[in-house]
Amino acid sequence: MDEAVKSITHVLYLLTLKSRFHALSLLGATSFPSKLADAKLAFDAIFLASILEDYLKRTYHFSARTLTWKGQLDTVADCFIDEKTINQSKLDQFINSIESDLSMHLQTLKDIHPNHLMYASVHFIAKMIDQQIGSYKPIGNDLIFPDVYWGSDEPKKTLKTPDIIRLDDQFEATTSVLEKDQVKFSKVSFEENVEFFWNLGIREILAAEICAMSIFEYDNLPLDFYHDMVKQMYDESRHANFYIKKSVEFFPIAKKRSSDERLLAIISNFEQGGKLPVPKEKNFIEAFLNASLTERLILLNIRTEAPAVARLKDKMDSPFCDEFPDIKESFSIDRNDEISHGSIGYKWLRHLYPELETRKKILQDVDSYRGLLLATSIDANSEDEFLELLERLAE
User: What is the rounded CA–CA span in Å between residue 44 and residue 296?
Assistant: First the structure.
């Protein structure tokens, strides 16, 4: 029995490692489809890890433990990331080595008393996981990850993602939000919504990137935290890819029915290899690079995702959505996801700060300097001095 528990625990651990490294890979990817692919791989791995944790709890009285990079910190910091970039080639090799160890541990599970009825549930678990990851091939005969590391103490930031995260090459940063308001959804204007959807795409991918940063950087949190964050990262990546795709699908319709010369020029330029204009601030990633986990939970999940639920319901009840029912259906799915994302924010804020009065105070504090955090993103893409910028924002 001890051998089975040890091997299952190791598989659980490796799956969480794999998921967290795919979150880092998402941050290094440039294209939206590549980010979506990494998000799905991260989700697949953490979903299986959660199944294993539940199995160990129910069958072997396993206590949930917090996760950590302990034992991998030097490797991660030295090999894959520096201040500005992610070494994607080395990261891919490392993920392959994790998959190799997974394959070897699964084989160990399958070989434990294969015909013993008392181990039937172990063999079922091994078969289930193998169906998902059985294509992985061992790199060698020796395990690369011989030890399992669990977290301890309080949640903390142990690693830092690169300071620069590139925008998808199909976009071009043009006008600042100080000069032109962000494009908003229109209940009636088709032309405005064509541009709205490609801008919505970069906002959605920002949310995925914020989740990826927290998944990768923060230790000593339960597996359930990483499952929630990976789930949201995957949701946001799906949303982003869908909205960009839908915007481009609207281009032929716009060419037939729109008289908006600016929009038609953008479409013509894009079809000839040009790029779609987005704000200079892109998706405000700089505001979140140095934000704490608490600030990210409040600014993204609680102050953005939760209020979006009502706004999406309002959008669904519009002439535009009546004309395009697939958008209405997508908003419905998006709305359901946003409900869960808001809940995730409150759930983990309670985990970090169990006392209600403490949470209220922290919410007030973050709300009070929210504008300052967003100003850091504007500052990173502006030639103005920061104090001058703050004065402009205050006007």
Answer: 24
Strands (DSSP E) found in 51-201: 66-67, 156-157, 171-173
User: Would residue 144 count as lying in a domain?
Assistant: no
Question: Is residue 155 predicted with pLDDT exceeding 80?
Answer: yes
- Give me the domain span that covers residue 44: 2-139
In this structure, are 129 and 178 located in the same domain?
no
175: tokens are 């006008």
Q: What is the phi/psi pair of residue 171, to 5°?
A: -115, 155
Average pLDDT of the residues in 270-293: 87
Hey, which bits of the chain come out as E strands? 66-67, 156-157, 171-173, 218-219, 221-222, 276-278
Task: Retrieve residue 71's tokens.
Answer: 């034992």
CB 329 within 8 A of CB 316: no
Instruction: Please give the pLDDT value at position 393.
Output: 47
Q: Is residue 10 part of a domain?
A: yes
Distance in angstroms (rounded) separating the CA atoms of residues 82 and 94: 16
Angle, helices 325-352 vs 356-368, to 10°: value is: 120
205 and 327 both lie in a single domain = yes
List, as own/partner pairs, every contact residues 251-257 make where C-beta atoms lie below 8 angstroms and the sequence separation is at least 24, other chains included: 251/194, 253/190, 254/190, 254/191, 254/194, 257/190
Residues 202, 283: contact at Cβ < 8 Å?
Answer: yes
- Tell me, yes or no, whether 19 and 125 share the same domain: yes
**What is the number of domains present in the chain?**
2
Task: Compute CA 105 distance to the chain's CA centroid, rounded to the nearest angstrom.
Answer: 28
User: Among the listed ranges 41-50, 182-191, 357-366, 367-376, which one has the minimum average pLDDT value?
Assistant: 367-376
354 in a structural domain: yes
281-293 average pLDDT score: 83
Q: Could you report the per-residue pLDDT of 92-136, keeping only the tens digit for each?
A: 988 988 888 888 888 888 888 777 887 788 888 888 888 777 666
